[in-house]
Amino acid sequence: MGGVQVTVDGILDSCENSCADDWVYWVYICDGVESGRPGGEPPGPVQPVCARAVYRPQREIGLAWSPAGESELASLPAWPAPALEGECVYHWVELLFDGAVVDRHLACWFDAACASLPVPRAEPQGDGRDPLLLVSRRAYRLVRLANEVDPECTDFDACFARSGIELLQG
Fold this sequence. Notes:
alpha+beta
């Protein structure tokens, strides 16, 4: 990809069929980072964890995970996920190219599901039904890729199907 204009979608295309073995993965503890728990819940006993991964075939491509801070979650509307059980912890998934962040999406880790999901926006339907939960295709692709790379995550597709989140068209 060197010297050629790259796009976020092009970067995602180039590593879409990768698996965890195609990535070098590091995990480290973040010092001084707020916990990404909604509603001002106290942090758990474990400090926030950050991680990075580099794509072996194209080392300029990387992923990063970091906890979302309380201030970042303050304006986040609540979204129901009744089919997903367990604690929900918010974090950022970032797509890196040549060391720079080229795309970033908020995700939510469900420990009972062992998967992260892209955080959708909730659109009211106006007729009293539950709001539509919508997520962009790019956010879906990035968080799905992050699940494939993260050795802790399993069964993203089944978790996403149960979540009630719909992909935006286009």
